[in-house]
Amino acid sequence: MMAVTTYRRQVVSSTLKYAVCVVVFIVIAVPLYIAIFGGMKSMGELQTAPLSVPLPLVTTMYTDLLLSHVGSFWRDLGNSLVIGAVTLFLDLALCSVAAFALARIKFRLSGLIYNYFLLGLLFPLAVAILPLYLTLRTLGLVNSYWGVILPQVAFQVPWNIVLLRGFFQSIPRDLEDAVAIDGYGPLGFFFYAVLPLSTPILATAAIIALVASWNNFFLPLLVFNDAAKFTLPMGVMDFMGQHITGWNIILAFLTLAMIPAVALFIFAQKYIVAGLTSGAVKG
Amino acid sequence: MTKQISAGFRKKRRATFFLLLLLIGPVFVVFTVFVILPVFQAAAYSLYRWNGLGPPTDFRGLQNFVVLVKDTIFQKALTHNILIVVFSLVVELPIALSLAIIVGRGRLKLAVFFRTFFFLPFVLSEVITGVLWQFIYQPQYGLINSLVKTFSPASHVIAPLGDPSTVFWAILIVIIWKYFGLHMTIYIAGLQGIPSELEEAARIDGASSAQVLRFIVLPLLATTIQITVFFSIIGSFQIFDLIWAMGQGDPVNGAETMVTYLYKFGFQRFNLGYGSSVAVVIFVICLTFSIVYQRLLLRERQG
After folding, report:
1. Residue B56: inside a domain, yes or no?
2. Is residue B57 part of a domain?
3. Which positions ≥6 away from B111 have C-beta within 8 Å?
4. Do B28 and A47 touch (CB under 8 A)?
5. DSSP assignment of chain B, as one string?
6. Is residue B23 domain-shared with residue B157, that is, in the same domain?
7. Which residues of B are less than 8 Å from A243 in CB distance?
8. Which fold is adopted by the domain A83-235?
């Protein structure tokens, strides 16, 4: 008897849970669905049947965009890729060696320098943006890739240092001694032992830097005034401004612009989640 | 003999110094130039009336701040930021936590699928999200109007983003849509850190699901919750991209926030002194909040 009521209660509870999940699923899925299929509809269909699957599928808008007859999808994508790749590379190269020094080399200012980098966690981009623009202007970096890349690298530094230093500190002392016996100094230890062991944490840091760069809008908005340099988010805004009445082709452009980030998420989900939650859970 | 040792020692110290310079120097310079210095520069510029050309000379003391605090548009912007904080805390985070409990533990089939899918909006950039929702809210073609027409054909066309009294609330929904998945994911990671033995032991002692939740899960999740609260508040004060992509804070400043205000008045009109005073206010709010929040938590933990 009791077993039956418990069982019944469990069924009710899990049905309820499914119901909640399905509702949330719909709230997320419908806008995405509309974007994907809206890009295959005529404007009339878009108005009269927003939720239908369009028949026949009009793929000309997607092909026009992909063949660059309309808009500049590939150029925007290329700009985002270049800026993202260089940001990611510089971030890893600069932060990994600095985090290594702060984690494994004993010197008097180590703690102070670490705290100095931590300070950056409290300095949001928005607060720095006006003087930053003047600095970029002085350095001649307005409207150049570097004008976006360097500040992006800099604002990622505190997160990377925290993440990497913590990991480097956890590498056992014995390993360092063993490498030292083979005649290697700190740099040998770094390149032959620490780096190979750190690929998961480096991947996490890399993905976080890449996603931040990929989605960045504020900085490119200030730095770029030439459409040839626009990244994807800038390109989306620009495209919308130029085709304001053609919502179907805007939706097609949006869908294409979504694909890289979603694909990256599917392939690198493990690292993305690890990166976003590492700081928060450890506390 | 001692001289030799100390010479060797000095040589080694110098080598270490150069090594450190090589390893830490570059990142130190980049970080200082692009992150630390600008904040101090903003503090200095905020005391001038300055268009950014030539050196700032027109010293105005605190006048920029006086004008700023009295400006009704800025007051509106600040109010919007505070409302975003409030709704993040009382709507978004509870939704995130409930969903985390539903899909993050227990034996629900498809849990992994839901978990992944709910995170998806966070992966999309703010601009893509904003433009997509502009379409959803669009008066002629948008989904919201189609729904309204289906259920009450006689009603007027609504334009949530075109009306200064509704634009903020329409964007607030998008903010929750986009960010709840991040917090849910963080909570799930926290939940997975709770040893299952604790829960089992409580069950054996006859605790109900609600009791397990109340007395075991939530207390052990406290630190994680505190951190999401912290980041959610700091993030709410800095929101820009999504607002900009959904109408630039307009119409009639209906969705203005402090950072859109800073961009419009500081950058677009090139009032760098005035814009910097906005930056200083944002910075002081975030800094004060961080310090007070950490003090409170420390006291709570000790008390």
Report:
1. no
2. no
3. B102, B103, B104
4. no
5. -HHHHHHHHHHHHHHHHHHHHHHHHHHHHHHIIIIIHHHHHHHHHTTEE--SSS---EE-TTHHHHHHHH-HHHHHHHHHHHHHHHHIIIIIHHHHHHHHHHHHSS--TTHHHHHHHHHHHHHS-HHHHHHHHHHHT-TTT-HHHHHHHHH-TTSPP--TTTSTTTHHHHHHHHHHHHHHHHHHHHHHHHHHTS-HHHHHHHHHTT--HHHHIIIIIHHHTHHHHHHHHHHHHHHHHT--HHHHHTTTT-STTTT--HHHHHIIIIIIT--HHHHHHHHHHHHHHHHHHHHHHHHHHHHHHH-
6. no
7. none
8. MetI-like fold (1.10.3720)
Residue B255 lies in a domain: yes
Span B222-239, pLDDT tens digits: 888 988 998 899 899 999
CA distance B57 to chain A (A): 16
Cβ contact A130–B42 (<8 Å): yes
Query: H/E element holding A218?
Result: helix A218-223
Reported as a single tens digit per residue, the pLDDT across B40-69 is: 999 999 998 888 888 888 888 888 999 999
Which residue in A73, A74, A45, A67 sits closest to A58, CA to CA? A45
B185 contact A CB<8A: yes
Q: Do both B145 and B268 map to the same domain?
A: yes
State yes or no: pLDDT of A282 exceeds 50.
no
Shortest distance, CA A141 to any CA of chain B (angstroms):
13
pLDDT band of residue B143 (cuts 50, 70, 90) is confident
Q: Render pLDDT for B36-45 as a digit per residue (tens, 0 to 9).
A: 999 999 999 9
Q: How close does chain A come to B202, measured CA to CA in Å?
A: 17
Distance CA A242, CA B235 (A): 31
With contacts defined as CB-CB under 8 Å, which chain A residues touch B138? 247
Q: Count the domains in chain B.
A: 2
Q: If you average pLDDT over residues B243-257, what whole number do you get? A: 92
